[in-house]
Amino acid sequence: MEPKVFKAVLHFIYKDSLIDDDELLAPSSSCMLSASDTFVAKLLGAAERYGLVRLRIMCESLLCKDISVDSVSNILALADRYHALDLKAICLKFAAENLVAVMQTEGFEYLKEKCPLLQSELLKTVAGCEEEFSGEGGKSRSVWGQFCDGNDPNDRSIGQQS
Hints:
Elements: H1 3-15, H2 22-25, H3 39-49, H4 53-64, H5 72-81, H6 85-97, H7 99-102, H8 106-114, H9 116-135, H10 143-148
Helix pairs in contact: 1-3, 3-4, 4-6, 5-6, 5-8, 6-9
């Protein structure tokens, strides 16, 4: 564990708050680091390792604020690795609702290569979103709707099977 992360864990244990640090609040998408290399990710790992549930929740909250099309795959893998179930559920829902754009990112390629079970969970979430969209009268565009608009990243012809 890095000394800076250890210091933050001790600060949390003694003061029940996060350390005041610019690195802690800096979004990972604004720098070249992957989500797993950020200070918050390392702190999440320490929280999971030492059973600091409140610290884990606080780290999950900070990571939730950083979810974007470009970061969601990496944050999803991170959430899965550290058993951050709430963060994982939010990432799966976000990725399912923005699947076409997410599929075009480097993070999605990482999921395909290194986390095939997460990809399977994402497909189950997509299926759940499809049911949700069809049941609510089209609250927003479904994944099927995105593909039907010709946004298939592989330029394939897509037709719905009956």
